[in-house]
Write a structure and sequence with these properties.
The protein is mainly alpha-helical. The two termini are about 30 Å apart. The relative contact order is 0.18. About 5% of the residues have low confidence. The protein is built from six helices and no strands. Helix 2 packs across helix 3. The structure holds zinc ion. Zinc ion (ZN) binds next to loops.
Length: about 150
């Protein structure tokens, strides 16, 4: 069976899609450690599967991952809060350090160059809670590394 054409993970015994749905189900339970990392997990998955990126071409996912690696979930919350405020046009806050230099690199998506994929984060397909946070962090690092590497 061919590996995933986008992230390079093996499709056997589970495809990336199946794993992503399992992860989303855990996220939506809103339980730790999955719930709080929902935004980070989705950003990793989308950037490793760019055909599913929303119409902003991954700018928000990229900014979110950079914020997470920079300052953890606090920084992510700030970023998301800013985006919400920005959308409502009520508060004009200056863009954060992260938001300013967080443009997604202009390049075509890396293929199969990821040292960590959803397959690794899933372990046996169940995304075990033990060390889930560490695995997501490694996933985020691998994603940003691959995208940051030369074209
Ligand atoms: Zn994949």
């Amino acid at each position: 069976m061919e590996p995933c054409a986008e992230c390079g993970a093996p499709m056997n015994p589970r495809s990336c899609d199946e794993l992503f749905h399992a992860l989303l189900a855990l996220d939506h339970s809103r339980q730790a450690p999955w719930g709080p990392l929902h935004g980070v997990s989705v950003a990793c998955f989308l950037l490793q599967h760019p055909s599913r990126l929303p119409s902003d071409d991954g700018a928000m996912a990229w900014a979110l991952l950079r914020a997470y690696l920079d300052g953890g979930l606090d920084e992510v919350d700030q970023l998301v809060g800013q985006a919400r405020r920005g959308n409502s046009h009520r508060v004009q806050s200056p863009p954060s350090r992260v938001a300013r230099d967080a443009a997604l690199p202009h390049r075509s998506a890396p293929r199969s160059g990821y040292s960590v994929t959803i397959e690794d984060v899933a372990v046996d397909g169940t995304f075990p809670a033990a060390e889930f946070t560490e695995r997501v962090e490694a996933w985020a690092t691998a994603t940003v590394d691959a995208w940051s590497r030369g074209t």
